[in-house]
Structure formats: structure tokens, C-alpha cells
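Chapter summary example.
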Amino acid sequence: MNAIKDSVHGHVDVDGVARDLLDTEAFQRLRNIKQLSTVRLVYPSANHTRFEHSLGVYHLAGRALDRLGVDGARAEAVRAAALLHDVGHGPYGHQTEAVIERRLGRHHDDVHDLLGSGELAAVLESHGLDTDAVADLVAGEGELGQLVSGELDVDRMDYLVRDAHHTGVPYGTIDHGRLLRSLALVDGDLALAEGNVPTAESVLVARALMNATVYRHHVSRIAGAMLERVCERLLDGTDLAAERFARMTDDELLAALRRHDGTADAAARLATRDLYKRAAWAEIDAVPDDVVGVDHGRVRELEREIAAAADAPERAVLLDSPGEPSMPESSTRVVVNGDVRRLHEQSALVQGLRSAQRTQWRLGVYAPEERAAEVGEAAVRVLGLDEDGASIDLSNGAPR
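The structure predicted for these 400 residues follows.
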């Protein structure tokens, strides 16, 4: 058995199939994909990787399986899935996910193609594991798949604590030990045992606060929007295959962007944190319903319309309109008076947190600083924003 020292969990014991998976090229690649991608432009110490996060998820999965009394081949498959749950991520993690989904039609949780053949498949099969079964667990299918991807998954338990640790933001510091001790399987579903409504609420609160201060920070959103758009240009303007793009590391992608004339300027901006500014910034009630969460094609149309109205180059306008706020953790199952209930049915906190999410929601329109004023004014007109709930640039790069 090997022991790896982790900054969050201390020593992580690695043996069995996990020990052999560690040395595969696909898993070692995760050393070169940052966990928080563009968030590190806001929090300089957030340089941890998906490699260490995956080790943490593997460690917590092992503790959860012990708690649930699951052992043998079933436990080995879950531990493998926990370790490999992020191997499907592209460069910069979630920031390129939409590009990959549009090009290849698959989400990062769909790893059947990666596990179906090659080195990973050979390792899994050498330990008597079915590759499709492990891939299904990564996708959250089945009774034990909920541990890897679900409302009470060990992925969430690790990243909240790890991201809080590395950013220095305290809000994600949940009691994952209590969560693990409270896990139970009830009629085939993962739930928290009697008396643990506050335990479930703690995850909900942590996630809401981390969203507001870390995951949805406006600087990270601007950088992410810039990165997504420039990746589209790279794929459209070069012979780079989408499959190859999806398997790049962060550094490989940045190097490819620098080499291509059509993306070199944007790559330099991302590398030096010379980012676009908020030209317009609007609350959800100030945004027409048909603009909230619009699809990629409509986003591009609106960007062109805003650029034309502002007499600006098309590349000078980026529209960032998230979908309606959601809170999947509110569906967590909890045992109350012997009955299994959903957290939102039992917790008065849920409605308040949902309201807070809606209050924090913002539509963003971003532009180079020298174009921000006219782009902001054009965005208000083209998008039909209510000026009482929207702010526009006042030529200093920050909305009023």
C-alpha cells in the first residue's frame, strides 16, 4: 500500500486498482489541469489541480464505502470511478465544457469512450472490473453511483473543502466527517440518517456562499467567456481536431492559442490578466425572460447586434447570460421521523437560499475597456434591459 500526503485529508492510502490507475497517462494528465481554472486569476493561491482533487474524492469514497458496509469488487469499482471521475475534463475544466459538448456531443461525466479501450481499460480489466460498469458509476448511475455523482456525492464534499482551503475563503469548510458518518442507503437511495437536516443544510449554505464569492466571481466569468469564445475561433480557424482539443492540458491549450494568428491576442490577454471589462451588468428582474439562459446560437446573434449598435468589432462584445439559478443539493434525501424526505420539504433555509441565488444572479456584457461605454449603452437597448436594474460602464471599466 502506498500513502500520498494530501494538503486537505492528510495521508491518503492508495492500493489495488487505484495504485495502478495513478500511473496511467490519462490520470497523470490531471496534474496539468487546474481545479479552479480562471478563478485563480482572482485568488492567486488557487493553483491546486484535478489530480489532487481526484485523490481526495477517492479517499472520501473509501470512507463512505466503509460506513455503508460495501466491500469486495463492488467497492473496488466505486473507488476506481471516484478516482477517474474527472478524466473526461477538457483543458481549463468547466470553462471549455460547453465548447466540447457542442463539438463532440458529450459531457465530461460520459467517460465510456475513455474507459472502453487503451491503457485505462487494460488496468481496470486486469483487476477484474467491467469498464462499462465503472463508466456508469462515474455518470452517477445505480445505487452506488450516487456516491460519485449525486446530491450527496463525495466529489462535492472534497471540492468545497479543497477550494476553500486553497483560496483562503472559509465558506466551503463543511464537516465532511459528519456527512460521511451520516450516510445511509434507504430503499436503494443515498440519504442522511435521522437527525441530520442541519448537516445537509451546511452543504447547501457552503455551496451558495462559494458560488457567490468564488465560483461565479465576475473576473472569473469574464475570463471564462473570453476563453470559450477564443477556443471556438481556434477550432474554426485551424485543423485542430475537437477530440485532440478535448484531451489537451491547460498549458497545451494556451500554447495552441498563442501559435494561431487569430487567437494570439486573446491568449496574451488571458496570460497577462488583461481582461475585458463589464460593459453592462444586470439583475435577473431587469432582463427579459427570453434573454435569460439563451442558447449559444442566440448568444452569438445578440453579440453581433450589440456590436453593430455600438459600431464596434464583433469580437469586442461578449454576452454572458446564465440560466435560471438552480440548487440540486436541495433535493438531498434526509430521514425525518423515520420517513425519507427531500431537504427542500423539511428545511426553511432552502427558500431563503433560493431567493439569495436569484438576487445574486447577473447578466454580463463584456468588452475591451476602451469600448465598454458604448457597448454597455448598446446592450441595454438591444437586450431590452430595465435600466433601473442594470448598470453600464462609465468609461472607467467598472459599471456604476
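To summarize the output: Strands lie at 2-6, 10-14, 183-186, 189-192, 277-283, 318-320, 333-336, 339-342, 362-367, 390-392.
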